Amino acid sequence: MAQAGAANIQDGVTMDLAHLNQSRINTDRSTVTLGPGLRWGQVYTRLAAYGLAVPGGRSAEVGVGGYLLGGGSSYFIDHGFGCDNVIAYEIVLASGALLNVTAQAHGDLFRALKGGSSNFGIVTSFTLRTFELKGIWGGNIFYPADRTVDQQLKAFNHFSGNPDYDDNAAVQMSISFSPSVGVVFVNQPFYALPLVNPPALHPFTDIQPQLGNTTALNTLAAFAVAGGALSPGGSRQMTWALSFENDLRTLHALYAAFNASVANIARVANISWSLTLEPIPMAFLRASARLGGNMLGVPSNPGGNSLVLCDSSFSWNNENDTAIVRSAGLKLLGDITKSAEQLGTLTRWVDLNHADFTQDPIASYGPTNQAFLQNVSRKYDPTHIFQRAVPGGFKVGLKRR
């Protein structure tokens, strides 16, 4: 997560897990054990040699550990969240004890780690189910926003809510502004089979005019590299997240709020200002439940409707611009939230992996799940080391007794 103190600490001790970068495929190739120091591009490359894959991050540079502990959405609709595919964890507790955690051994901790973040110990390995992957099709398509907005939002709404959803198909839709280009749509269609321009994705590939199109048959690793290139590192960054029911009115309100926000940051040097929309179709929610579920509290049947995850990506270079960018970013979050509330489509789930530090994603899991996480914390970390001595990231909300 792009939050100060979450991955390192000023004037404190940082435990660097980069060298825990092992990967081991079991003998029947049904599972793989990954170290938390790996990045997803490395994982995809190593598994491709065996014709295998796992649900992981969309950017090659995203780390394995944080992604899986925060939930982790991916392109593979019929595999749910990344954390739904973890079948075992190795974790070091605050006491120094090393535990192997599965659904049968320390089952409460096993469930808590599926979205509970770094609140219970240091996870030193994750074992995930694998699946066969012969190849993928996808890429980035760029469009002028003013000439395609109605087509874009209608396509996204229909695709997300399609009752005959093709589980091999996925898409990310970004609305982006930069001073040199203005406002554009960037769609990233994805298909989990080596099939060029499959019918399920025609609602996006048919939109015209297009400014550029990089879609092609590809490997998962190369696709993740291309995805990461849309948000390069080396800049200051702000992210936040919210979710709402798939609704065309809400999508139009979001676009209007984004357009209005541009004036607040247009003069910031080297600003990159983007919102990304990701469908969470019913097929995805059913797959998550089938695999055992998690702590995220995402409604499995949100009014019979699919969900939309919206996350921001704002980047800039100059520290002096931070107050301007953060103020504009939080105003945009507030404007979209207000519109969704008025339309009755806002849902409580906040994606931890993209949340801003002013948000409380663990509370968004719901009171029952938050109370469960608090009880697990008390059991496995009775001295509250990971609540008080590790101040970064999002905490379970324990009150001092």
Helical element count? 11
Q: Per the principal axes of the C-alpha atoms, what is the gross shape?
A: globular
Helix content: 25-40%
Q: Indicate the radius of gyration in whole angstroms.
A: 20 Å
Mean of pLDDT: 94
Could you give a short account of the major beta sheet?
A: 11 strands, antiparallel
How would you describe this protein?
The protein is α+β, with helices and mostly antiparallel strands and 401 residues long. The protein is built from eleven helices and 18 strands. The strands form three sheets. Strands 8, 9, 10, 11, 12, 13, 14, 15, 16, 17 and 18 form an eleven-stranded antiparallel β-sheet that branches. The longest helix is centred in the last third of the chain and has 22 residues, at 322-343. The protein is globular and about 60 Å long. The model has no long low-confidence stretch (mean pLDDT 94).
